[in-house]
Automatic annotation (TrEMBL):
Gene Ontology biological-process annotations: protein N-linked glycosylation
Record-annotated membrane-spanning stretches: 56-73, 85-102, 136-153, 159-188, 200-220, 248-267, 279-295, 301-321, 333-354
Gene responsible for this protein: Alg12
Pathway where this protein functions: Protein modification; protein glycosylation
Compartment(s) where it occurs, according to its Swiss-Prot or TrEMBL record: Endoplasmic reticulum membrane
Membrane topology value: Multi-pass membrane protein
Task performed by this protein: Mannosyltransferase that operates in the biosynthetic pathway of dolichol-linked oligosaccharides, the glycan precursors employed in protein asparagine (N)-glycosylation. The assembly of dolichol-linked oligosaccharides begins on the cytosolic side of the endoplasmic reticulum membrane and finishes in its lumen. The sequential addition of sugars to dolichol pyrophosphate produces dolichol-linked oligosaccharides containing fourteen sugars, including two GlcNAcs, nine mannoses and three glucoses.
Name of the protein in question: Mannosyltransferase
Length: 685
């Protein structure tokens, strides 16, 4: 049972291994302590100090526990991203120990049955388990607060005061409200005197304050009490509201229901049936009410009260379960207490799936490592969005690569020359010009999706669907500019004149324009073509190769045949509809659409003007066999109906037409073709 909480937190970590910007300071600090060690000038916080300074004491403690594992990884040449798992698991382990200590105090006071319910309720909820591995200031304070609550329940006042001092002076000053209320309850109950309090609190406070000032002044290279500056910034100056504000009762109608799940209903029952839990639980609720005065609110700010309210809910469940044999009504209530755990688990799974889509930056860099595995001398720029949504120094796993988070990046030509790869925000209204300039020098390898919204679907077993959208683009610098390619092709034409003469000697020469009548390749490639022109230009380019050399013609023909016959997928069509594809990929996708349209018409027994399939079936030596390829170019130009159909499909959202979970993309396109035909038939009538 003691391992259940830790293992559940570890499962959340495995599913969501990346971190966000709020966790960056502590995570980067642990990385620097473990890997840079005494190279203090290279620590990340000197370049990215954040809005307010934070203490190094928490990262130091976790790093000391994690150090043996990191040394083992270095010996075995295991990349350091696994060390990120280690430090977060160590943090979860420390919290698990503190939680188990609290559970022992609960067992002693309320009994074994309450302990079992307390454990079951805790592991069935999402937020407490999820945050146990998150290196946030609140989470570093959490184990100390849990120890303090356990000591308070046992009436061990000296360790309670010391733990309270550490959590308040080092990590989170707002805990003075919560722990101060518990201290006030003890004073009102006359469990100890004010004189006794001062004898413990004053020397402990001085020592704790001196420790944090000494340690943090060393790392920050100036005289500093980090939590003092945070208190001044958030409370006195009230500048935390710059990061967003929420209504006064937001914690009660939004944060607590999400964090507690269906267990929240059982809290008032526990308070009613178990008087001994009231001082602790009411102090927690009063803390939330008082803390609501600050306009900037986040769920993690009140994470300390979740275990307290879970104890109250566990007391309510135990009382109801104990009376289950009294009547059918009591049996039903007992069954509801058990069923609410299943409801919590369903909510947890749903929220965990959503949280997995919130770290596109980490997913993008991880994907780049797989795409470019073994590539040396890679220089990647990480955009602001990517840096805030998962990227950390633990992910800089390749010593031959250069990783940059330069915030002054303006994507000018001079800036882009420094990088071989980019992680940039997906195309939107604000960065259209940037993407237009990037596509001249970079190819888009992939897009990484992130959370967009939650949708309702009525034709599926699961009524709710998590919708995503492209967030981070992975770009790679083009190996060779188009201008150089065109020069190479011109050179080929000039140096292979005999091959041209050989081709023009064929019986079908009248169907093939002479080289001098063709436009030069360079202007053709440099022209700003629309999408269908891109398709035509690709095939024309292949025809020119045919005229200059028979062997290159055969290779180009094989490549052109292979490309459109690859199975089309929904991602290609969505990228095309959103306008996020390059000219080359747009041309390839539209060529695939054309192939499907032609195949569909042939299957229905319809004739296609200058059908390329019929012409390619002719032997190379027969009349018309050689110009078949050239005629296919003309047919692409002349088939206006097919061209218009391609343009319509290129802007469609197929999810509104077909159920892509049950229908393949190709079959869906066939349905679209039939619908377009039907609509045109109605217009002609």
């Amino acid at each position: 049972m003691d391992l259940l909480v830790f293992l559940t937190a570890a499962a959340h970590l495995v599913y969501t291994p990346f971190t966000k910007v709020e966790e960056s300071f502590n995570l980067q600090a642990m990385h620097d302590i473990l890997y840079l060690r005494n190279n203090f000038t290279q620590y990340d916080h000197h370049d990215y100090p954040g809005v307010v300074p934070r203490t190094f004491i928490g990262p130091l403690v976790v790093s000391m526990i994690s150090a043996p594992f990191v040394l083992l990884f270095e010996t075995l040449s295991i990349n350091k991203f696994w060390a990120q798992y280690v430090v977060r698991l160590v943090l979860a382990g420390v919290i698990s120990v503190a939680w188990c200590n609290l559970r022992q105090a609960v067992t002693k006071i309320y009994g074994v049955e309450v302990r079992l319910w307390f454990t079951a309720i805790t592991i069935s909820q999402f937020h407490f388990m999820f945050y146990m591995t998150r290196p946030l200031p609140n989470i570093f304070a959490l184990p100390i607060v849990l120890f303090a609550i356990a000591y308070w329940l046992r009436d061990q006042h000296k360790p309670f005061i010391i733990c309270s001092g550490i959590s308040i002076l080092v990590f989170r000053s707002e805990l003075a409200l919560f722990l101060g209320l518990l201290l006030l309850v003890s004073l009102l109950q006359r469990k100890f005197s004010i004189d006794g309090l001062l004898k413990i609190a004053l020397p402990a406070g001085v020592c704790i304050l001196a420790a944090t000032v000494l340690v943090d002044s060393f790392f920050w290279r100036r005289l500093l009490w980090p939590e003092g500056e945070v208190l001044w910034y958030n409370t006195v100056l009230n500048k935390s509201s710059n990061w967003g504000t929420s209504p006064f009762l937001w914690y009660f109608y939004s944060a607590l229901p999400r964090a507690m799940g269906s267990s929240l209903v059982l809290v008032p029952i526990g308070l009613t049936l178990e008087p001994r839990i009231r001082p602790l639980a009411l102090s927690a609720l009063l803390f939330v009410l008082m803390y609501s005065i600050l306009p900037h609110k986040e769920l993690r700010f009140i994470i300390y009260v979740f275990p307290v309210l879970n104890i109250a809910a566990a007391c309510g469940c135990q009382r109801i379960w104990m009376n289950s044999a009294k009547s059918n009504w009591h049996s039903f209530l007992a069954l509801a207490c058990g069923a609410h755990l299943l409801l919590n688990v369903v909510m947890t799974i749903f929220l965990l799936v959503i949280s997995g889509t919130n770290y596109p930056g980490g997913a993008a860099l991880s994907r780049l490592h797989r795409l470019e595995n073994g590539s040396p001398n890679v220089s990647v720029h990480i955009s602001n969005l990517a840096a805030q949504s998962g990227v950390s120094r633990f992910m800089e796993i390749n010593d031959e690569w250069t990783y940059s988070k330069d915030e002054s990046m303006n994507y000018t030509q001079a800036d882009l020359e420094l990088y071989t790869h980019l992680l940039v925000e997906a195309k939107n209204k604000q960065n259209t010009e940037i993407w237009a300039s990037l596509q001249n020098d970079f190819d888009t390898l992939e897009f990484v999706d992130c959370f967009n919204s939650i949708g309702i679907q009525y034709n599926s077993l699961l009524p709710v669907r998590v919708k995503t959208k492209p967030c981070i683009g992975i770009l790679k610098k083009k190996a060779q500019p188009l201008k150089e390619k065109s020069k190479i092709k011109e050179k080929k034409i000039k140096t292979k004149a005999p091959a041209v003469e050989k081709v023009t000697a064929l019986p079908t020469v009248e169907h093939i324009p002479k080289i001098k009548e063709e436009p030069k390749i360079k202007p053709t490639l440099q022209a700003d073509l629309d999408d269908d022109d891109g398709i035509v230009a690709t095939v024309e380019e292949m025809s020119l190769e045919l005229e200059t050399n028979i062997e290159p013609e055969a290779e180009a023909e094989a490549e052109a045949v292979e490309t459109p016959t690859k199975e089309i997928n929904f991602h290609e069509l969505r990228t095309l509809a959103l306008g996020q594809s390059t000219k080359k990929s747009r041309a390839a996708t539209k060529l695939k659409i054309r192939k499907i349209i032609e195949q569909h018409y042939r299957a229905k027994g319809k004739q296609i003007e200058n059908d390329s399939a019929e012409q390619t079936q002719k032997t190379p030596g027969s009349p018309g066999g050689r110009p078949g390829l050239r005629q296919s170019v003309k047919s692409i130009i002349k088939q206006e109906k097919i061209k218009e159909m391609i343009e319509q499909i290129a802007t469609m959202d197929l999810t509104r037409i077909c159920d892509l979970e049950k229908t393949s993309t190709k079959d869906c396109l066939k349905q679209v073709i039939d619908k377009i035909d039907d609509s045109e038939g109605l217009k002609t009538k």
